[in-house]
């Protein structure tokens, strides 16, 4: 994002740091740090389902076809399921 930039996300759509940013933050030393120097971006999530017009999807030719894979395809799963906890649906019990 550029300073003052913004993004708008559909309700319940995936968004967040890319794989490189996630791993960098995960491996960073914990301690006080100054963040955001020279930037301030905004992310908005609407409670509405936003549709895309034909122009926005195809005609403008600016859709990033590989966006999901490029951004999150390299995210590594570090979580391991505890052996003594069975999985029922998406919840540990």
Write up this protein:
The protein has 93 residues and is α+β, with helices and mostly antiparallel strands. It has one domain. The chain has 3 helices and 4 strands; from the N terminus they run βαβααββ. It has helices at 19-27, 54-59, 67-72; strands spanning 6-9, 42-45, 87-88, 91-92. It has a two-stranded parallel sheet with strand order 1-2. The mean pLDDT is 83. It comes from Cordyceps confragosa (Lecanicillium lecanii). Pathway: Amino-acid degradation; L-phenylalanine degradation; acetoacetate and fumarate from L-phenylalanine: step 4/6. Its cofactor is Fe cation.
The largest sheet is: 2 strands, parallel
Distance between the termini: 40 Å
Compute the number of structural domains: 1
Number of strand segments: 4
Structural class call reads alpha+beta
Q: Globular, elongated, flat, extended or rod-shaped: what is the shape?
A: extended
Mean of pLDDT: 83
Strand order of the largest sheet: 1-2
Helix % is 10-25%
Reading the helices and strands in chain order gives EHEHHEE
Q: Please compute the radius of gyration using only Cα atoms.
A: 18 Å
Low-confidence stretches: none
What share of the residues does DSSP label as strand, in percent? 5-15%
Number of helices: 3
Pathway: Amino-acid degradation; L-phenylalanine degradation; acetoacetate and fumarate from L-phenylalanine: step 4/6
Cofactor: Fe cation
GO cellular component, one term: cytoplasm
GO molecular function: homogentisate 1,2-dioxygenase activity; metal ion binding
